[in-house]
Amino acid sequence: MDMRRLHTTLGEKSQDELGLILPHEHLFVDLGPIEAKSYEKAHTDEVVKIMAPELLKAKSVKVSALVEATPVGVGRRVDIVKAISQAANLPVVVATGIYREPWIPDWAHRAGEEALSDWMLKELSIGIEDTGVKAAWIKLSAGDDGITDAETKLLRAAAKTGQKTNAVIGSHTIKGRVVEKQLDILEAAGYKAERFIWIHTQVEADFALHLAMAEKGAWLEYDAIGSDTFSDRYFIDCILKLIEAGYKEKILLSHDRGWFDPSKPEGGEQKPFDYLSTVFLPALREAGLKEEDIRQLVEHNPFNAYAR
Ligand SMILES: [Zn+2]
Which DSSP state fits 182? Predict the structure, then answer.
């Protein structure tokens, strides 16, 4: 029996209770100026009014759960995310962890590896702040040109907590060479590449590095589906080549869309979570993928990545 569960804002879910899962989206992110701390002043009702309809729209195109990928440092508000999720009755998966420099807060700069690991453990096993919601996973990030000392400290803390909880670590990392270094650090700390997600894989132009990281065991997350920067054709080519190479079970697909930004008037402009269901999956079927392959990519893979 599969005892793994996906921890969500609406409680623990088994694979049977879920279908399509979007593994990387946002409901609430503060892109700053971060010193203004607009995220602290946001009104829950105002955000729910704008974002709950987006979740209902996602539900109407068969989305059964959505992963919120906002860590501490860019305005994480799990209380607001929970309220949106409850209003739409759609389970949302949230993260512990901290974004990269210069968004790492002072307290995390001052904290040691052990204290950071304990903080993550508390958010994964007891809950985040007083929301009663447990984080499912650990979100981190690394600089585009390499990992700083503070980022290394966070990564090692995450490795420690990840080993205890089997929580997956996902990192916003733009370059394949930096992911390679992150995996070295994780493996030296006793953590397995199989529980690491390379977020934003698509940005690395060298496909050989996508293959190399899949070979090491990492998840490859193509999370700009429906963006103006990357065409459907680009993603379909990557997916077909990875399936051909035997890595069908390591692919994650999402939009990285949303969201309410409290630094913008009325939360800025939202983009819906529907492109994958309505445009991209039909294109994948047309490219020859069978229904069971598609279910592997958008149902089983995200559950396998985030459940523990
Ligand atoms: Zn994102």
Answer: H
Range of the domain at 19: 6-306
Q: Considering only CA atoms, which of 298, 205, 208, 200 is closest in space to residue 248?
A: 298
Give the full edge-to-edge strand order of the sheet including 92-93: 20-25, 63-68, 92-93
Ligand 1 center–CA 98 separation, angstroms = 13
d(CA 77, CA 68) in angstroms, rounded, equals 11
Q: Which residues contact 60 (CB under 8 A, 6 or more apart)?
A: none
The string of pLDDT tens digits covering residues 146-166 is 899 999 999 999 999 999 999
In a domain, 1, yes or no: no
Residue type, 272: P
Compute the distance from residue 1 Cα to the ligand 1 centre, in Å: 33
Q: Are 161 and 167 in contact (CB under 8 A)?
A: yes
132 CA from centroid of ligand 1 (Å)? 24
CATH assignment at residue 114? 3.20.20.140
Is the distance from CB of 133 to CB of 9 less than 8 angstroms?
yes
Closest CA to 10 of 76, 70, 88, 69: 88
260 assigned to some structural domain = yes
Distance CA 61, CA 280 (A): 12
Q: What is the average per-residue pLDDT within 182-197?
A: 97
Helix (H, G, I), strand (E, B) or coil at 52: helix
**Host H or E run for residue 166:** none
Number of structural domains the chain divides into: 1
72 part of a folded domain:
yes
Distance 281 CA to ligand 1 centre (A): 21
Q: Considering the chain, what percentage of its residues have pLDDT values greater than 70?
A: 100
Task: Return the SS3 of 236.
Answer: helix
